[in-house]
Amino acid sequence: MSPDGEQVGRKGLTRCASVWACPVCETVIRGQRATDADTAITEHVRNGGMVLFVTFTVRHWSNHDLEDLIRVQVREVWKGLLQGRKWARSNAGNLRNRLGVVGTIRVLEVTVGQINGWHPHLHVAVFLGGRQDPKPKRGSGEKWDPTVRSYFRPTDADLDLFEAEWKAAWIDGVTAANPDFRPSARDGVDFKRVYTVKDAAAIGKYISKVQGTDVTTDWSAGAELAMSHVKQARGGNMKAMDILFRLAALRGGQVADELPGWGSIEQLAALWAEYELTTKGGQNMAWSEGLKRAYGIGTDENQDAADRQAVDAEDASEADATRIHMSARTQLEVGRKRIVVDVDEAASDAVRRNEDPVIAVRALLALVGIDSMGVWAITADEDEAKWKASAENAVGASGETDDARAKRKEREANDLRRARADRRQHVWKQASASTQE
């Protein structure tokens, strides 16, 4: 805690750095991602380039598995779209060069509807109107400098041609991968052309009204890409955290009709299990090679490493701050009983009154039935020593044998099969019966 008791932070917690399944880490990660994306988009547009903001969707029904929908869109069609002929050239010549393609940022968003099921879809920002040095030949040993040397505005004719080719390629690719997912010609692909910083700031209107945000002033292209978790989904659809928060509220005894979203405890648990198991290890956001370096944001390192850095940065603390150490068991009980804020307030109030915050926290814990001896004061030097030892232990224990990895993969595959079966039984069967009534 800061010397005045106004600022409270935590250090030394084990953090999962999951942008998919953790409401704590997700907020930190998406905030940093939105800042990075906004920096690149704004600088590119301000310098004279343009951004094409594209949303790709597929047809989906309640009997479709989330894993199949994601695999077709991300690993098959999107990957093929970047590597295929339509992207590299057209019958009219090298369209990619005429457009001045600098790179792309791709984000996968997942929602779920009560009637039509899982709805994963892609948001893509395509940076156009930039001239860069050509990439050196493979094996040459030369390092490519992705700096954009000059900017220009692509012609409307080339943009029209590009949009038509990408739309056709997306529909044909999805249909070839799985005819059940064939997108509609009208809604399968949507394009927004961004020419000015003001245009970029207005992109948040594109999908839906943002919960608690003035879209016209506060929402940006970067936020549209990275902060989709705070937007309200259309047509009664729920985002992942909507599932989790409603599930937690119902398990906590709140009335279903008074909560946003839909679904019983059994339905929500089945949805969450399938979602978490399917997305684990997947890539939520991807920058094309060199794009981060072109705008001084970072390197082409794996996004997971950048996410880990973002959440670890939350562990910074002031040298002269008051420190209270909580045992792992005590911290767990504080979380289970949802009194994290109460603990913070008790400690801060004590610091402001020049009283011992440890005594104040212990008194609070005793009132709610938590062992108060799991809390004690700690010096800055002791804190640093514990933090260093914890980091060293984590590194030493991080190895996983091939046998253990194989068993874990098998266990997760079995869990996913059960989750899908539960979802079909508890969610769509009940939803179908409700619709017929």
TrEMBL record:
Region described as Disordered: spans on this chain: 303-324, 389-437
Feature: compositional bias, Basic and acidic residues: 402-425
Name of the protein this chain belongs to: Replication protein
